[in-house]
Write a structure and sequence with these properties.
single chain, 164 residues, alpha+beta, five-stranded antiparallel beta sheet, two-stranded antiparallel ribbon
């Protein structure tokens, strides 16, 4: 038995307007969750914390930055007396940051990237996590170096942890 398509009266429960309306609503709901970019983060003139006035030579600061970067998987290359480039390949995305420093502060700024969806202003959200993690480790490394300098001078610095 052959069915005649003209004789079959199948009613679709939704009108075309309803389908378009619900499609539009779903797009509005899903649009914010699909955003994977945010403004590029740059850290400028971040102070190098000194413990009890311990000052560090630029060479010592550079070594601290290099050690912190290596620990996180960044490849670091010196570009000058107070400048380094840091490169990372993270899940097929590559980024290069420029780190400049003095005895008192350092800066981490965007230099170049590949597959990080950089559009001149915004970049993939993982870039921010990588840069903030690098900054955190640089701070810890420089703090550790300052503690070592104090220890070698015969002074021991113990940071008091506040009680709850």
């Amino acid at each position: 038995m052959l069915l005649d398509a003209n004789k079959l009266k199948i009613k679709f429960p939704y009108s075309k307007c309803n389908v378009l309306f619900y499609t539009f609503i779903m797009i509005l709901i899903l649009l914010p969750t699909g955003c994977r970019t945010e403004p590029v983060v740059s850290l400028r003139n971040h102070p190098i914390t000194t413990i009890r006035g311990v000052s560090m030579e630029p060479e010592v600061i550079a070594e601290g930055i290099i050690q912190a970067g290596h620990r996180l998987g960044w490849k670091i290359s010196r570009q000058g007396a107070n400048t380094v480039h840091a490169y990372i390949d993270h899940d097929g995305r590559e980024a290069i940051v420029l780190i400049t420093f003095s005895e008192r502060a350092y800066s981490v700024e965007y230099w170049d990237s590949h597959n990080f969806l950089y559009d001149g202003r915004n970049i993939h959200k993982n870039y921010k996590k990588l840069v903030l993690s690098l900054t955190y480790d640089i701070n810890n490394e420089l703090n550790s170096i300052a503690n070592k300098i104090l220890f070698e001078k015969g002074e021991i610095y113990i940071k008091k942890i506040p009680s709850k």
